[in-house]
């Protein structure tokens, strides 16, 4: 459900790789229940932002606050424990493990507190969202198709029952018809109101279409922000990101 409650609040964030400034003083926020997309070309800094939110990278300036708690000083596993799940670029699944075991591993931080029964129940819920994963639950993850692996990567992140889900380029390397399926699932997650989503994506049209709000990132800086539908009709966005060759 949409509310005006701030969940993620990023202020004046700078992240460097040595001398390279990958994020140059960006500010953005995500409210509870929103799907916010971040679009931008190759190298704009999208992956860097998600990796900094999940505390795999540390900023050189600025702050990231999640429900009032400052994230950069926490270790990555502490950020996960707060309920932030990250589905990384390149749909990394555990190739030699079964689909089922991949999902169970996603829920690992919840086992001790909630027990196996709660986790099994969650798995049933994930299988309802991704019926293909149910059919293939005993199959080795490495033998799934690209689209199925992407579904598994998202499903595994959802096993954490995250309050905030970070999705990095879910379209990467997939055929257009499969990308449609993946975005259909993202839309379903959004509509279910179960989780707040920050989606990073190069395919601007799809990312804006599914978003409540969006930001345009260019060379480490926020260039534009607005409601998804408004940005879709913004002339600047149209000429830079929605041209015929941009693969939307
Ligand atoms: P893509 O869509 O191609 O993944 P992106 O928007 O996610 O791009 P980032 O991967 O965040 O962009 O990269 C932002 C900038 O930081 C780029 O200029 C990139 O070359 C640089 N960069 C990323 N990772 C490193 C690294 N480990 N060491 C040095 N520079 C890096």
Structural class: alpha/beta
Fourth CATH level, the homologous superfamily: P-loop containing nucleotide triphosphate hydrolases
Task: Report the span from N to C terminus.
Answer: 28 Å
Radius of gyration: 17 Å
Structure commentary:
The chain has about 250 residues and is of the alpha/beta class. It has one domain (about 5-95, about 150-240): P-loop containing nucleotide triphosphate hydrolases (Rossmann fold, 3-Layer(aba) Sandwich), CATH 3.40.50. The protein is built from ten helices and ten strands. It has helices at about 45-55, 75-80, 100-105, 110-130, 130-135, 145-160, 175-190, 205-210, 230, 235-240, and strands at about 5-15, 20-30, 35-40, 60-65, 70, 85, 165-170, 195-200, 215-220, 220-225. A six-stranded mixed beta sheet has the order 6-7-8-3-9-10, sandwiched between helices. Helix 3 (about 100-105) packs across helix 4 (about 110-130). The longest helix is centred in the middle third of the chain and has 22 residues, at about 110-130. The two termini are about 30 Å apart. The structure holds adenosine-5'-triphosphate. Adenosine-5'-triphosphate binds next to strand 2 and helix 1.
What is the strand and helix layout of this fold?
Layout: E1 6-17, E2 20-31, E3 35-39, H1 46-53, E4 61-66, E5 69-70, H2 76-81, E6 84-87, H3 99-106, H4 108-129, H5 131-135, H6 146-158, E7 164-168, H7 176-192, E8 196-201, H8 204-210, E9 213-218, E10 221-227, H9 228-232, H10 235-241
This protein binds adenosine-5'-triphosphate (ATP).
Adenosine-5'-triphosphate (ATP) binds at residues 17, 20, 22, 40, 42-48, 202.
């Amino acid at each position: 459900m949409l509310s005006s409650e701030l969940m993620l609040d990023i202020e004046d964030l700078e992240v460097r790789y040595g001398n390279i400034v990958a994020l140059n003083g960006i500010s953005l926020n995500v409210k509870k229940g929103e799907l916010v997309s971040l679009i931008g070309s190759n190298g704009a800094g999208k992956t860097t932002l998600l990796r900094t939110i999940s505390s795999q990278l540390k900023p050189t300036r600025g702050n990231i606050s999640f429900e009032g708690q400052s994230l950069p000083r926490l270790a990555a596993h502490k950020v996960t424990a707060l309920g932030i799940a990250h589905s990384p670029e390149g749909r990394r699944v555990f190739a030699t493990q079964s689909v089922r075991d991949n999902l169970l591993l996603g829920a690992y931080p919840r086992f001790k507190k909630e027990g196996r029964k709660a986790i099994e129940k969650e798995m049933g819920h994930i299988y309802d969202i991704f019926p293909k994963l149910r059919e293939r639950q005993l199959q080795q993850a490495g033998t799934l198709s690209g689209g199925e692996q992407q579904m598994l990567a998202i499903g595994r992140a959802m096993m954490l029952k995250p309050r905030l889900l970070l999705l990095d380029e879910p379209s990467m390397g997939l055929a257009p018809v499969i990308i449609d399926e993946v975005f259909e699932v993202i839309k379903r997650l959004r509509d279910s109101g179960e989780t707040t989503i920050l989606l990073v994506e190069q395919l601007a049209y799809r990312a804006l279409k599914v978003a409540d709000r969006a930001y345009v990132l260019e060379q480490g800086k926020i260039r534009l922000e607005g409601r998804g539908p408004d940005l879709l009709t913004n002339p600047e966005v149209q000429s830079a990101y929605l041209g015929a060759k941009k693969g939307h």
